[in-house]
Amino acid sequence: MKGTGKQRHDRLAMTNSWSDSGGIEWSGTNGMKGVTANNGMLEFSATNSTPTNYTVRATARDLTNCWDEVTVNLVKVDIEHVVTNTGVQMASGALNLTTDSWWPTGSSVVWTNAPAGLGNVTLSGDYRTFGFAPSNSTPTSYVVTAWSSLLPTCIDTATARVWRVEIVPTNALTVWNTNAFTLQLTNSYWDGSSVVWTSIPAGLSPAGGAGATFTVNPSNSVPTNYTITACIAGMTNCATTAQMSVIKVDVAPHATNTFWWMTNEVTIVVSNSYASGGIIWTGTNGLHVISACDTQLVFTATNSAPGDYIVKAAAAVLSDAYDTATVGIRKADIVQTQVGWSVGLSNNAPFNLTADSSMNVTWTITPNLGAGGAQFAAGPNVPGTASTGSGTNVWITPGTTATNYIITAYVNDLPSCQDTAKLIVISNYTVIASSTFIALSNNCVTATAWTIDASGMAVPTNSNWTIPLGNTRARFVSGASTVTSTTGVDTVTLTGLVVSATLNDVRVHAVTAGSPTMADDEWFTVFKVEITNIKFNHDTGSSGSDAINIRQDYNTPFDISNGEWVKGVTNIPACYTTNKTVTIKARFTVQPASITSADIWAISTDSGGSLGDVIKTNVTFVSGVASDVVFLVSGTTPNCIQKTTNDVWQWKMENVNGSGSPGCDMNTSGMHTVYTILNEPVAPWDNAWSGGNNPSNAWSVALDIVCQGSPWAKGTTTIPDAAARVTQGIYNSGRFSYDTVGGACNYTIFGPAAVDYFDASSWVDRLKGGIGLGSSVNCWDCANGVMVMCNVLGCDLWNQWMGSSFVCNEIRAIKDGAWGQPFPPNNGFSYHRVGWRGAVANSGKVFDACLKVDNDGDPTGSGNHNSELIPTDIPFWTASGTFDDYKQMLVDTNSYGNCNVSDMPGGAQNPGRRRDPIR
Amino acid sequence: MRTCQLGLLIGVLCATGIALADSNAVSAASVASSRLREFTTSAATSKYSHAVNRSLDDWGDLLGTAYRSKRGRPIQDTTAIITGIGQIRKAEGTFMKGELSASNCVVSLKYYEAPSASALRKYFLEYVVPTYSGGMPPINKTYGIGDTVLSWTDLDKGAKRIQFIAFFNNVAVEFNITSDGEKSEIDTVTFMRNLEHWVAQGKGLNRGP
């Protein structure tokens, strides 16, 4: 047996052999290449032969059974790769033998690597695959060798590279304004390839590079955080990343000056910056910071200490990354507001800045009158000669001219930051009172302190006050007390004791303390104005802009000749229609009679009344009286029916005789009782005045009832609603019961031939709790009652007849009688009357206060009444429908033909609609 | 009390109304016709001359001193010539006992006087009855007061309310008496006897209802 390597040229030779001339025949060489036989020798080329096991036989041609054999193992160990590259990110790598590698059974292939460092080396069972783990290997280049254990010279080698890249630093911070920052590779191996650097997002300068280092220029880069990647060319999965932040802090504005007293907020903004860990503000001690965050600093000058600040905003993660702003809080605050100084004084008026004011200040004086006027001096007793001053304290010589000056101090580097004070150079004093008129009694007037040369400045020194004339008409007070001493005060208050006999007969005298001593007088008038009469119904011929005509009841008129309200004498109610602009007329008296005019108005001081304020009007007095003065009442009358009893007006006045005197209280009027109704009363009521003797004017006794709250009409705004409430009010009053005996009229009074009148007086009396004419009523009475009580509110209802002789469904007669048909044996009404709205037609609306009907959808029959209704504002007859109109609910279905409405008067029943007269 | 009274009345009516249900209109018409015929034919010369030509105040005396005319509402006493009937005098007044509305008794008196008994009845039928929503009242047989008594109520027992018209030849007086007192009922029997005595003798017992 002979073994040979794959790349050898071997020969086989016979020894001690002989053959005849026929020679040797070689066999078993199929697969061998380059075979040459030379009788005693067989040569072949292992390189080109197929690696395997050969049995080569040499046979004598002449004697074929003379032969010999030899086994030839043609071994091949051939690593498929020359070079294999792996990265440490890879879990496995491998080298394989070529498929034609062969070695005899029983032998093996031996693999080695050098240098050591490959991790997790494995060998497959057939010796053909050499495995390793790059991730567990030392990055470098390895020589891997494989050879046949049978024939060690049969050997092959390959190169296995393990690549790795690692960036330092992995998390870099750099200040925006540096020029170079370098990232490097460490513990890296990329022999045989190259390294490529990239970055995201865009904005880094440069964006990428190659080689062992990567140097960027932060100052040319956009401040932000970048992800830097280093990758070995050709092996994308062998890459590594690092973070790099370009930190920038930039604030705006970089300089700001502001006034100390400015209350508006000043903001320093962080812009065009990147500071991932936030901003730390420093240098703000003394500033009144409102808020400080990563985007801005907000402060106000007010409450900040004046001075210069360098405010610093630094990145929390990199203190070297910062920006600053210069903030100047300027203050020029003159201690004095106003200084009074007399002409000719040798000492100078001092003006000072507060201790916290800015130091670098300039003072000016306006007007600048030169040598004759006020000028800045070098000291308290040095004559002033300068038009400007500087420093925190200045002195001003008053000069010889009495006038007012404005003293200004401004900060030099912020001239608009300034303060002013007034220097009043005075030559005499004048007493100025808030008014030269004093209202009598408790209405005080303050004689406002002193003013100087009419400039409005208070005297800086105490004063002594007297009332040398008129002291029986006025006195000094303090609060509610009389003041006995008025020495040493600058302000006094006066109250009137007795009305002045003439204008300006009270003199007040004041003497100032201090130097120079001066005095002045003021003259006053103590007056008294009263409202004595109010006319709400001042035009009895019309209610267009005033109250309607009313009376107490049928027999009792209201005497309003002097108005409804006469101070201390009369207080008569008034009645308005809704939503109306109204006027009143009023009468006033004034003392002293020499007062000729004043502005007068009134404030409504009540809660829940009906009338608003009285609009201010200039009133002219003649001989101490102003009569029938027309006043507009603000707003409009209420929008709904109501009665109020608490309207009170506090009357006020000002501007006596055009003096501009301040407002003061007069007397009050009220409580006024005010009714509000929808419209002028409708017949049988009559709004015609007729000299005050029309008994059909609306009666207050009737209004008292219907203007009450539920179930009456208070709060309603429409005729249907008001009429419904009145109808329900009558039915539910409990004051009436239906005359189920005969159905006789009781409150409707007949003469021999016709209706005489409806006894509304007794009806109202009954509703108010009186006896009236007793409880018995029939439908005519109730229809009249509804019509009359509604029409006094302006509802325009009628008393409507229907008939005749019809059978009824079961009803509940007023008030809440048992269900049943009326009047046996006919079981119905010979006629019926109801309150009515609209035309005499089936569409007219019924208001029936004398009965309840069954409105449960089936009013027929007995004992099945599940719902009941006082008919209000429901149509008389719709012809169709299912028991949802008045006729269907009231009348037996077989009697529909006997129950119709008519507007044809005639006979005692007087069919048709009517409005019986009232008494 | 009023509610209870009305309830009882309606209750009775309902019980009889079932039988009348199928002939309701016919029954009502026959009743009215019967009443009218009896009323118009019963006129006779009155023996109660005392009742004639009296003022309403005189009639008020019948009620006794406990009653007073309603304050502020004088007695109406008017006459009118009515075509086809002649002169009609009508006086009306309201008398009441008690000061409180819940315990009073109110008596409404209406006095009618015509030229003759027939003229009075004609007037009554044409001008007075039509104002009653209950229609024509029945003739009461119990009391022979006057010539005819039309009454809606049973005059044989007390009640909270009684209404009747007594005819005395050419005079008729309508009584409408209501007691609003919770516990009081009208002593109808006594009142009717009092009335009869008064109209017959010219003087009363000064007892009200």
The termini of chain A sit apart by 160 Å
Q: Please report which band the strand proportion of chain A falls in: under 5%, 5-15%, 15-25%, 25-35%, 35-45% or over 45%.
A: 35-45%
Q: Give a short account of the largest sheet of chain B.
A: 7 strands, antiparallel
Shape of chain A: flat
Unreliably modeled segments of chain B:
1-28, 204-208
User: Termini distance of chain B?
Assistant: 18 Å
The SSE order of chain B reads HHHEEEEHEEEH
Counted by DSSP, the helix tally of chain A is 5
The largest contact between protein chains, plus residue counts on each side, is: A-B, 62 and 59 residues
Helix content of chain B: 25-40%
Main pleated sheet of chain A? 9 strands, mixed
Low-pLDDT runs of 5+ residues of chain A are none
Mean pLDDT of chain B: 69
What general outline of chain B do the C-alpha atoms trace? Answer: globular
Helix content of chain A: under 10%
User: What radius of gyration of chain B results from the CA coordinates?
Assistant: 18 Å
Could you please describe the fold and organization of this structure?
The complex is a heterodimer of chains A (919) and B (209). Chain A is mainly beta. In chain A, 5% of the residues lie in helices and 44% in strands. The longest helix of chain A is centred in the C-terminal third of the chain and has 14 residues. The radius of gyration of chain A is 61 Å and the shape is flat. In chain B, strands 1, 2, 3, 4, 5, 6 and 7 form a seven-stranded antiparallel β-sheet that branches. Chain B is globular and about 45 Å long. The N terminus and C terminus of chain B are likely disordered. The longest helix of chain B has 19 residues. Chain B starts with a helix and ends in an 8-residue tail after the last helix. With 209 residues, chain B is an alpha+beta fold. At the A-B interface, β61, β62, α3 and β67 of A face α1, α2, β2, β3 and α4 of B.
